## 1
Amino acid sequence: MAVSLPKLKYDDLSSKSIQEFRRKFGYYLQANKLSAEVEEVKLAHLKSAIDFETDELIQSFNLGNETCTSILDALYNHFEPRKNTVMNQFNFFRCQQEENESFQSFHAKLKMLAAKCEFGEVTDTLMKTRIILGIKELELQQFLLRNSTSSLEDIMNHCKNHEEAQINQSVLKAQPGSMQEAAVSKLKARRIPNHVHQQVDKKSAEPYQCRRCGTKHLPRSCPAFGKRCKKCADINIIPLSLLRKMGIHKRNLKPCRLSITSQRMVDSK
């Protein structure tokens, strides 16, 4: 399947757009099996991708022996802002890790700044220094200062491990709260539903057969409530003699225990 030719318009020219076009044009040559073709063929495809104004700009460069690489390099250098090494180094040395910024993001930012500073062989040393001085975690910074002779790779690994440990610690601290919420939810699930309470309230409003006095009455309306037996001194007890006077002879009642004992002695005689 053929890949369409990317376009490069004069109104959209910038160092970024030229770099993007270079990448897409390379994919175009590979996908259409043009990478092995002679330079004249590839140059013809490149000229087909640009408009008239861009072609005039290329002609003004007076490149002589034109190639795809020389044309794209000339366009990029024309639109690339002039480098200011001093300002780039200034931005590098004042770079700090922002609040809530991960170490991975901080390191990538430093690396991009260092690429514009022309540090050469001392790039790794200055990167290590900037990481130690720009890290936001005070405890981690103190540890790195005590181990400042470590390599850049060791410094980076320790920062990554420290950040990962903090994340894991936050997860562990949040765990008890989650368990507590689960326990509360479990207790709520055990609560008696409202309809059960309504059924209990409805039953409590109906008369029932009392085992204390032998009569039917509403809850908490027993005539034996609060009365003390003169024989056994128990509360809420109606003596057996009084029950018989009331015409109650049921055996499932709870009369005075002394009355029961006396009655058994009389019956035995």
## 2
Amino acid sequence: MQKKTLTTLLMLALLTACNNDVAERRKPGYGEASAPISQEVKITVNSVDKPDSLEFQKLMNAGVLAAGKDYPTVKLKIEQAPNQDAQIQQIGQSAADAKAIVLNIANNQAVIPLMKDLCAKKIPVVFFGASPDKRALADCPLDYDLRGDDMTAGVVQGLLVAQAFKDNPAMDKNGDGTIQYAFMKATQGTEFTRDRSDWAVATMSSYPELARPVSEVMVSYANFDPALGLKNLEAWLANPNFSKVEVILTNNDDTAIAIANELKKRGINIPVYGSDGGEVGLRAVKSGLLAGTARGDYQQWAHDAVRVAANLGLGKPPLEGLPTSYRMEERTIYPPFVGISAKNVDEFLK
């Protein structure tokens, strides 16, 4: 009982931060050059911009470019290469001229030698999009990690599902009062997947006035790959237990959209919930293809990562110029997520 109470209190705290963040982002000037950086600072950034990039990667690249325009005193050098090993090598070669580095490297083990080298040279590093190895981050007091608050993403997604079951009793197909779900998760064994998944389930089963029993019917891992998600879906559809599934949750919109499209082709009506909330995900909610998504503003986060790096390069507090709702724990900066459904999607579409 005590554990459930603590879980509920943390959910409420995270959602309060979300609501404050939405209000703050609607203030005029946020995300613009309203808090200028008065001194010149050189920042090196690696960025992903390929035709086959996932939507959130494209948004992060756009955020880096926007920061360069919003902060003219920040001299950005953007490193792009065919793969991340080449990007690590490029950053290592060009770092000497930078006051700070912004990195988006998925392989958190491969980047450790570079982290150690930059730390020895007293060059701060701000990670975004993909988190560094925790021990390596702890070893260098100059480094920071700006990442989406995946616990909040899970809480927000779970709240969307729980609210939908309350508002639409027909979603409970067998009328047993239990949410019977399938979960197409991202990468097995990662903190990202654990937080987005476990907190979604905990919210459905524990949130005040909306909580109801939950039952996991099926679970698979798609590793952010929509094609693998569809392959897993085929296996689900061949399993007689799939008939029990009342809702499908995923850890990212690209996979959710692929699954929802395939179900639509087959005439199977099961609500699908994503997580990311980029333009494609928002339009999928608007069209009714997705039932909802947890929105993280990846473009703004990349913009913010450049701001944090500039602050560090100039010896300023890392959070200067960012929303007060951002929380920081042990040099990890957490921007929150917002729940998106048909009720509010128009507020966020461009």
